[in-house]
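Each record in this resource describes a single protein on a pair of labelled lines. With that in mind, the following record should read easily:

===
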Amino acid sequence: MPQHLLIPFAAASAPECQALLPSLALPHLKALLPLLGEQLADRCDDHSLSPPHERALARALGLPASDGLTPWAAAQSDTPTQPQAWFSLCHYQVGMEQVSLLPGAQLGLDAADSRALFDAFAPLCLEDGITLRWDSPTEWHASGEPLRGIASGSLDRVSGRMVDIWLAESPANPAGARLLKRLQSEAQMLFYTHPVHDARTARGLLPVNGFWVHGAGALDAVPALAEAPTMPDALRQAALRNDWAVWKTAWEALDTGQIAALLDAARRGEPVTLTLCGERHARTWTTVPTGAFARLGRSIKNLFGTVPVAETLKDL
């Protein structure tokens, strides 16, 4: 069985991350890349609704990969042809001229507070044809026809950043988009006046004052999903928290672990694929044929030298 390792946030656009790239010690990645052939890269920009790792994962699974339109909630359900979405609780930080978002995972939100907010908000959604299901303290599942054709920015895009860049238009369902904006405004007012708001503030915690819609839409038919690639999460978690020291340590641990294992498999002649994703591009390398032409190509590559790993990561 071919092995596919898909690495989100292998690099990031933050200056602190870019400054670390030359100092990364990744000997196994350096040895692996010359053994593989690069495929056509997925090149976009860092303002796309879907980050490169989500687009790459969608393609690997055989899901629609159009920007902001992969219906992740539906694809992960037992009824993928019904419109669904994720409502992720968050804290909107309002500044002088901008609004930024802190995701629920960084708010210390417990189940009791989340359920209290859910019980207050779910009836409002139901009036508009959206059924909510409580899945976790930070993630609520939504279903209903208003969610069909909704374009949405990934939570990974907006976490810790200004939200206006990723407020998507939904030309396929403008009425649904307007309804969701109204529900977001109603949630803001409801959560502000809810006892949970004052209780969290009294404990020195940031209040929950809204939710972010993502992974919306429906599939046209029940998919025959391909096997999912292995997708380590340590780099992503560190990057979303802007903890670049942890990110560097996690990369070097990944190199000595899963990258080293992929290198061993490639040296044994097994089919392997590596996808490195940044905030703009996803680049994929895979096992090349073992014939004379392939050996000639590797000889030419070695003759002219390989691109330094830091330069490869910088181009993500």
Remarks:
- Confidence is low (pLDDT under 50) at residues 291-297.
- The first strand starts at residue 3 and ends at 7.
- Strands lie at 3-7, 36-38, 42-43, 84-94, 99-103, 131-134, 139-143, 210-217, 272-277, 281-287.
- Residues 121 and 187 are 7 Å apart (CA to CA).
